[in-house]
Design goal:
Blueprint (H helix, E strand, L loop, with lengths): L2 H21 L2 H31 L2
Helix pairs in contact: 1-2
C-alpha cells in the first residue's frame, strides 16, 4: 500500500471514530480506531521498506 493511501485510511478512520462518538455508536468507534491503526501500520511498513531499499540501493 502506498503511504498516501495509508494516510487516507488514518484520516477516514479518525472521521469514523468521531462520528461514532457523536452518535454514541461504540461499534463505529471501534471500526474507526481499527482503521486508523491499520493505516498507521501500513505507513510504518512502507517507511521501513523505503529505508531497506535505500540501504541496499535497490
Amino acid at each position: 500500500m502506498l503511504k498516501g493511501n495509508a494516510r487516507t485510511k488514518q484520516i477516514t478512520g479518525r472521521m469514523r471514530e468521531t462520528l461514532g462518538k457523536a452518535l454514541g455508536d461504540k461499534s463505529m468507534q471501534r471500526k474507526g480506531r481499527n482503521e486508523q491503526l491499520r493505516g498507521k501500520a501500513h505507513e510504518m511498513t512502507g517507511k521501513a521498506a523505503d529505508r531497506i531499499r535505500k540501504r541496499t540501493k535497490h
